[in-house]
Amino acid sequence: MRRRALLPAVLSLLLLAALGLHLFLGRDAPPVTEALTALSRGEAGSYDQSVVLFQRLPRALIAIYAGAMTAAAGCVLQGLVRNPLASPSTLGINSGATLAVIAGVFLLDLGLEAQGFAALVGAVGGFLASLAVTRLAGRNNDPRGLSLILSGALVSMLLVGTTNALMLSDPMRRADFLSWVSGNVNHVYIDRLYAFWWIGVLCLLILGALSRALTLILLGSEKAASAGVNVRPVSTLALAAAVVGAGSAVAICGPIGFIGLVVPHLVRPFAGANVALALPCCLLLGAGISLLADFGAREAFHPYVLHTGLVMDLLGGLAFAMIVKRFYLSPAVRDQA
Amino acid sequence: MRSARAIDGRRVLRFSCGLEIRVGNLAAAAALLTGAILLALVSLGSGITETGFREFLRFLAGEPASADQAYALWTVRLPRIVMGFMAGWAVALAGAMLQSITRNPLADPGLLGLSQGSMTTIMLLLVFVPAAPKVAVALAALAGGLAVALLLLWLVGGERASGLAILLMGIAVETVLSSVGSLLLLYTPPETSLALADWMAGSLFQANWNAIATFAPLFCASLLGLFLLGRATSAYDLGNEFAMALGEPVRRSRPLLLIFAVLLSASAVTAVGPLTFLGVLAPQLAGFLSPATGRARLFLAALTGGILVVAADTLARSVVRDLPLPIGLGLTLIGVPLFFFALRLQALRRLQLH
C-alpha cells in the first residue's frame, strides 16, 4: 500500500525533471542563471530572458495542460467504456472538436472565446455520434466493445474529411489553421490557454470528486449500485467531464493523440483499479510525457520544429498496433473468439 | 431459363447452366440501372451553361452545337459522369469485398488504410519527383495499397486471425500513415500543399477522356473479377471455418480477394482521390434495397456506389455553383442521411418481424 502511495511522488519528480529539461536544456538554450532570473522576476530584461519567458514557458504550460487533460480523459473513458482502446482520439472527440472550431471560424467568424465553446460542443457531438453509430450498427452484444472503436474511427474519418474540405474553401485562412489542425504545441496559442484553463480545472475537480464512485463502478455496476452509488448519473457526469476536458485541450492546441490512449495503460499496472490514485498518476505522467514529446519535437530536427501533435500521432498509431496485438491477437484471446 | 422458388421461398430464375438469380435482385438491379441513366441525364443538364440531354442528342446526330455547349457537354460533364460512376463502382466493390473477408459491416478501404497507403506513396512521389508520369503515379498507388495489405496480413498473422483483428490493425496503420500524410502537407511549400490537399479531398475536376481510357480496362476487369470471385464472398460471410468447411480454398482466395480490393481502391484513389465512407455506405444501402449474397450483392453494391458518386457530383454542381465543392463532402452530405435512414428503417423492419 505504501509503495502505491509513493507513486504520485515519483511521478511528480518525473514531471519536474521533464519541466526542467524543457525549460533549461536544448540547443540554443539560454544560460540557466538568466532563465532563473527571468522566471523569478516575471519580466524579461534581455533577449535570453524573453525567450524563456515568452517561448519556452508558454510551450511548457500548454504541453502540460494538453497532456494532463487527454490522459485524464483517456483514463476515465477506458474505465467507463470498458475498452482498452478508448481515448479522445479514437472515439471521435478530438475530431469533433476540431471540426467545430474550424466550422465556427470558416462559416461563422467566431472569436476566440466562442471557438472554445464550439470545441466543447464539437467534442460532445463527436462522442455522441460515435455512440449513435455503434448503436445503429447494431452489434450491441459484442463483448469487447469493438464496434464502438470501429464507429469511432469511422466518425473521426468523416469529421476529419469534412474539416479538410472546409479548410480548402478558404486558402488564406487555411494557412493560419493548418498547423493547429494537426495538433501543434506552440507559444502562439498561450492566449487560448489563458482563456480556457478553468474548464480543465473544473472537469478535473468533478472527476476527483467522483473518483470513489467511479472506482466502485469499475468493479461492476451492480456492485456499485448495492454500495449506494447512483450509477447512471455518476457515469454520465464523469463521461461529460472527461469529454469536455479533452475538448478544451483541443481548443488550445489542436488534437493531440497518443497520450490519452497509452498513459492509462502505463499507469494501470502500478496504480491498480483505484481511480482516486490512478487519475492523479495519469495527470502527472500525461503531462510529463507530453513535455518530453514536445522537447523531442523541438530538438530532433533543430532549426525545424516538428509538430508535437504529429509526433504523437505517429507514436500513437504504433502504440495502438501494440495494444491490439496484446489484447486481441494473443493466442489466449484468439482461442476465446 | 425458368422461374422457380428457392428453398427459402423467394422467387428465383434458374438457367439451364445451373445459374440462379433471385427475381428481387434482378428487379433491384434493373431499377438501379434505370436510376443511373436518369441521373446521368439530369447531371448532363445541370451546371452553369444552359444545355442538356436534347443538345447532346443533336450533337450526336451531327448537328453543330455552339462552342461552349459542346465544351460543357463533351469536355466537362460527360467525363465527370463516366469517371465518377467508374470510381464509385470500384470503391464500393472493394468495400463490399472487404466486408465479406473481414466479416464486418463497417470495413472500408479507407478504414483499413488501403487508400491511405496509396495516397501516401502518391504524395511521396509527387513531392520528390514532381514531374513523374501518370503511369508511375498509378503504379505507386498500387504499390502503396499492396504494401499496406501485406503489412496487415503479416501483422495479424496469416489466415487464422479473425476479421476484427484485421480491422483494428487497419485502423492503426491508417493512423500512422495519415500522420505521415499530414507531415508532408505541413512541410511542403504552400502551393504544393494546397494542390495535394485539394486532390486528397477527392474531386472530379481532372476527369478527362484519357483518364477514362486508362480506367476502362480496369472497370471491365472488375466485372470479370466480380463474376469469378463473387461466389467466394458468400462463403466468407459465414466465417472462416464455415468457408473452409464449404470447400473454399481460404489460403488462396482470401489473399486474392484482398489484392483485388486493393487494386480497385488504388486505381480509384489515383483517378479521383479518396472517396471516404463510400465503401461502407454503398453496400449497406444496396443491402437495404434488396438483400443479396455473393455476386448479386457485389454487383448491386458497386452499382449503388457509382450512382452515389454521380449524384454527389451533380449536387455539387447544381447547388453550389461558384464554390468547387469536393466530391467527398458531397458524398457525405448525400450519403450519411441516407445511411441513417436505411439503418433506422431496417431496425424498424426487424422490430415488426419479431
UniProtKB/TrEMBL annotation, chain B:
Key word NAD present: no
Organism listed in the record: Shinella yambaruensis
InterPro entries xrefs: ABC_BtuC-like (IPR037294), ABC_transptr_permease_BtuC (IPR000522)
Location of the protein in the cell: Cell membrane
Its membrane topology: Multi-pass membrane protein
UniProt record similarity statement: Belongs to the binding-protein-dependent transport system permease family. FecCD subfamily.
Pfam families the UniProt entry points to: FecCD (PF01032)
Record-annotated membrane-spanning stretches: 21-44, 81-98, 110-129, 135-157, 164-187, 207-229, 256-278, 298-316, 323-343
Keywords: Cell membrane, Membrane, Transmembrane, Transmembrane helix, Transport
Protein name listed in UniProt: Iron ABC transporter permease
Keyword Membrane: yes
